[in-house]
Amino acid sequence: MITMSTIVAAIAFIFVLVVLKKTIVFVPQNRAWLIERFGKYHSTKVAGLNFIMPFIDRIAADRSLKEQAQDVPSQSVITKDNISLVVDGVLYLRVLNPYDATYGVDDYTYAVTQLAQTTMRSAIGKLELDRTFEEREALNADIVESINQAAEPWGIQLLRYEIKDIVPPQSILESMEAQMKAERVKRAQILESEGDKQSAINVAEGQKASMVLAAEADKAEQILRAEGEAQAILAVAEAQAKALKTVGDAAKTEEGQKAVQLDLATKAIEAQKAIAKESSVILLPNGDTSASSLVASSMAIINKINDQQKG
Hints:
By secondary structure, this protein is of the alpha+beta class. It is built from eight helices and eight strands. The longest helix has 82 residues, at 170-251. Helix content is 62%, strand content 21%. The mean pLDDT is 80. The strands form three sheets. The protein has a three-stranded antiparallel beta sheet. The chain has a three-stranded antiparallel beta sheet with strand order 6-7-8. Strands 1-4 form a two-stranded antiparallel ribbon. It has helices at residues 4-23, 98-103, 108-124, 129-134, 136-151, 170-251, 254-278, 291-310; strands at residues 24-27, 31-37, 40-45, 48-51, 57-64, 68-78, 84-95, 156-167.
């Protein structure tokens, strides 16, 4: 039979369990819980085991300290040259101060998104259409700097901002496509002309090299021919010199003298015969004109010359 004391004890035990459950809280990693006591901010509980006053303290806000990605909705912006564009993006932010993110602004994600849109409109409004596509990185950096300055009281840090897409009107797209096509045709023509130019240069250089090689070959041939002729002349001269030396050496002997005398006599007779054939007037030495006389006179002259050389 359950007595009254048993019921009271059970109720007390349950009450203690509820109080303990309300007192002990476990905060997850990279999160911060803001505690209010009697409706007023009391403390911030970080990751791990924490204790609060049951029935008095309450968790007013649960803030994530992780990096968060937030889409920036598409919006229409006007460039400096009055071209309407549709731009969207994504921003990456993180809560640095949970207290400021809770009590400094009502909804920090909405506030940062609106600030990003207004900053984007202002930044693109200072640029012309062509520069809008070229300076996307500079736009991202300017937006991050501007938002961080404005969001500092909210305890929010914007890590980076990325423009996802920039969509110009259809007429501008068609004009840009035509311009790109013209640029491609221009580049193709330039490349073709450069190729023709290089080809002509290569042909001219080839012809020049061929002419140079031909001239060098002709020069080498002339040099070789001249060297060959010179060597031939030297060989003939050396042969003649050797022959004369041999004749001279032989002429110094007695037999050589006789041979020379006989050769001279023979040449004298042949000369007289040639003169007789070519001229009607014949000059003969005084005295006997027979062959033996001519040989004898020639021998006498040679002997006299030899005697003078000996003397």
